[in-house]
Amino acid sequence: MRNAKSFMFVRTSILTMAVVVAMLASGCSSSGKPNTPVETFKSYINAAKKKDTTGMKLRLSAESIKMHEQQAKAQSTTLDDVVKQETLFNEGQKVVEFRDEKIDGDKATLQVKNTFGTWETVSFVLEDGEWKIDKKGYADRLMQEIEQSTQQMDDFINQGKEPTP
């Protein structure tokens, strides 16, 4: 009888400890709140400086990874090579400055100073509860700005000209 009580005590103790450990582990691993875009950007920069391509890719959106895979295929190179080449800062930059984090639902932006000293907007998207750098969104926004600029230039050029029949 004593062995049965000892066995039950040990079994209950082990189960209790397992539950406590699981609760502590889940409490430590996540506060239920995703990293901010700034924290994601800092992690990306740290990974890039260490040439940690896996760490860089983990901070990129799924659409950004797809875009880089297409680039790699077109250039007959690897995804890792494209990710290393397409950083958001110049390798020679000692300090990467950023400001004005703005979050709007599942999208966010952050102003980042480039090597020319001007501010660029980096896009972020919330994926699976984590902020990811949205290079695809950034590229799409640049294309849209180029198209708008081209349209404005066309409108300017065509002002005052009579339509041709």
Structure notes:
The protein has six helices and four strands. It starts with a helix and ends in a 7-residue tail after the last helix. A hairpin with a 2-residue loop joins strand 1 (98-104) and strand 2. Residues 7-31 have low confidence and may be disordered. The radius of gyration is 25 Å and the shape is globular. A four-stranded antiparallel beta sheet has the order 1-2-3-4, sandwiched between helices. The protein is 55% helix and 16% strand. The longest helix is centred in the first third of the chain and has 28 residues, at 2-29. It has helices spanning 2-29, 37-49, 53-58, 62-74, 79-85, 135-158; strands spanning 98-104, 107-113, 119-127, 130-133. By secondary structure, the protein is α+β, with helices and mostly antiparallel strands.
**Gyration radius, rounded:** 25 Å
Strand content: 15-25%
Category from helices, strands and their pairing = alpha+beta
N→C terminal distance: 107 Å
Helical run tally: 6
State the main characteristics.
alpha+beta; 165 residues; 4 strands; 4-stranded antiparallel β-sheet; 55% helix; 16% strand
Please summarize what this structure is.
The chain has helices spanning 2-29, 37-49, 53-58, 62-74, 79-85, 135-158, and strands at 98-104, 107-113, 119-127, 130-133. The protein is an alpha+beta fold and 165 residues long.
What's the layout of helices and strands?
Layout: H1 2-29, H2 37-49, H3 53-58, H4 62-74, H5 79-85, E1 98-104, E2 107-113, E3 119-127, E4 130-133, H6 135-158
